[in-house]
Design goal:
It is a single chain. The chain has about 400 residues and is of the alpha/beta class. It has two domains: about 270 residues, Spore Coat Polysaccharide Biosynthesis Protein SpsA, Chain A (Alpha-Beta Complex); about 120 residues. The protein is about 45% helix and about 10% strand. The chain is built from twelve helices and nine strands. A nine-stranded mixed β-sheet has the order 2-1-5-4-3-6-8-7-9. Helix 7 crosses helix 8 and helix 9 packs antiparallel against helix 10. It is elongated, with a radius of gyration of 26 Å. The protein starts with a strand and ends in an 11-residue tail after the last helix.
């Protein structure tokens, strides 16, 4: 649902505009250069604000944006995934804002914050698209500086940086968040050292991009680090940075969580290795983690309870398979779980996990007795072959994506 509030017609009823009514865009002639402007673009800048339960920040945010930006050259686009009354608060506050405000509410929240930003980019009509948080940790007064730096330096992308000269991250609450933020920045720059050679703050959520340099359809957002996605996939030509001071949150609670951290790690893997290799890597890490419950169960049953080692090994394998299923189903294939029922997934997973014994034992005997490999090396070979086989079966059978049926008129 998209609602646009135009301050020049406050007496008229609010109009619901379908998302497909946005003006068509003309692609840049070459990626990374300043190309043609989108068709019928008349605004200087569009400010895109993704929101999730930020009702207490809206009024102050709009007031400060209205003071910082010329109303006739600006529009504000909220893309809202809230579960509270934030959309209604935005609509009410927008009535007194001289800048036109659009509220686009999403029920599914696909792609998280990054997906909301991409949706806002599709709705934008400005020559520049400015992305910032709605919690006022990104000061609204810096928006003209971002646009000015991009225009002056002929840049495609302008990043608000906490680490450039004069910037700081004082608004991060607590030592833990500072460590996480600094560590994730360091790891990201190491993984993408070529793509991020011009970027000191790849985790920044504050940036402005020239619309003619943007290839929205190439973006595959996952979680809240949309800038990294944009730099790696779109590869903008000239990047400049503007230092700023990261502010304390104005109101509400931080949306950072363990789930967002997992999303971030998955996003790094997708960008660096591609989808299937990333899944294979995580599948392998989950398999390695299963060694711990396997060995612990075998030790407890055989060493403490006195159970014979053969049935103890079978029970230990069942525990490890259960461990691996829980992690695989929750972390690796969470988005694909709708393709099968829970019992369908777990039955197939346990069948595959125990069928693994039928594959490995004869192969182990063949390698040791026929190829004369040592037991440890032969066992390692069987584990590697089993791993590849189990990954392919999991990826292509248990968690396969359903083919889309063609739509007929």
């Amino acid at each position: 649902m998209t609602i646009t509030t135009d301050p020049t017609s406050l007496d008229e009823p609010e109009k619901v505009q379908p998302a497909q009514a946005r003006p068509a865009k003309v692609r840049a002639r070459m990626r990374g250069t300043i190309g043609e402007l989108p068709a019928r673009t008349v605004l200087r800048q569009t400010v895109v604000l993704p929101t999730f339960n930020e009702r207490d920040n809206i009024a102050t945010l709009l007031d400060r944006l209205a003071l910082a930006l010329p109303a006739g050259e600006t529009e504000i686009v909220f893309v809202d995934d809230s579960t509270d009354d934030t959309p209604e608060v935005i609509e009410e506050a927008a009535r007194g804002c001289p800048i036109p405000v659009t509220v686009h509410h999403r029920e599914d929240g696909a792609g998280g914050l990054g997906g909301a930003v991409v949706e806002g980019m599709r709705l934008a009509r400005g020559e520049w698209i400015v992305v910032m948080d709605a919690d006022l940790q990104h000061p609204p007064e810096i928006v003209p500086d971002l646009i000015g730096a991009g225009t002056r330096d002929g840049a495609d992308l302008v990043i608000g940086s906490r680490y450039a000269g004069g910037g700081n991250r004082d608004g991060l609450s607590g030592g833990y968040r500072r460590i996480v933020s600094g560590g994730s920045t360091l790891v990201t720059k190491m993984i993408f050292r070529n793509s991020l050679s011009q970027v000191s703050d790849p985790m920044s959520g504050l940036f402005a991009i020239r619309t003619s340099s943007l290839e929205v359809e190439e973006l595959r957002p996952l979680g809240y680090k949309i800038l990294l996605e944009l730099v790696v996939r779109n590869r903008p030509g000239r990047i400049v940075e503007v230092p700023y001071s990261f502010q304390p949150r104005h109101a509400g609670e931080s949306k950072s969580s363990m789930a967002e951290g997992v999303r971030f790690v998955k996003h790094l893997g997708l960008l660096r290795f591609g989808a299937q290799r990333s899944r294979m890597l995580l599948f392998g890490l989950i398999g390695v983690s299963g060694l711990l419950p396997n060995q612990a169960t075998l030790w407890a049953l055989n060493g403490l309870a006195g159970v014979h080692y053969l049935p103890a090994a079978v029970l230990a394998n069942l525990v490890a398979v259960g461990w691996n299923f829980a992690l695989t189903d929750t972390l690796l294939y969470r988005s694909r779980r709708s393709s099968r029922s829970f019992w369908g997934r777990i039955n197939r997973f346990f069948l595959l996990g125990n069928a693994d014994l039928l594959l490995r034992i004869p192969l182990l005997a063949l390698l040791v007795g026929g190829a004369h490999l040592g037991v440890l090396w032969a066992n390692l070979v069987t584990l590697l072959i089993s791993f590849v086989a189990r990954f392919l079966i999991s990826d292509k059978v248990i968690y396969r994506t359903r083919a889309l049926r063609p739509v007929t008129a």
